[in-house]
Amino acid sequence: xxxxxxxxxxxxxxxxxxxxxxxxxxxxxxxxxxxxxxxxxxxxxxxxxxxxxxxxxxxxxxxxxxxxxxxxxxxxxxxxxxxxxxxx
Length: 88
Ligand SMILES: [Zn+2]
Prior knowledge:
It comes from Psychroserpens ponticola. 49% of the residues lie in helices and 0% in strands. By secondary structure, it is an all-alpha fold.
């Protein structure tokens, strides 16, 4: 999985991919796929899957200290112990 900084880079490569004038998806998003696969060692071929999974894994920041929660479903902040309010 990606951390926040890596995800920011991946997002950039993703939006860059839309501007590449090629019809083949894997060609368009070659930079993103390479970046992700080099980082993770996966052989991901679907750019959307990368963005989707990464967003799910990263989750949100603590309302109290601003540090990211470990997982999207974490009930407690690992840094400050803040109880998380999950709006679902
Ligand atoms: Zn916190």
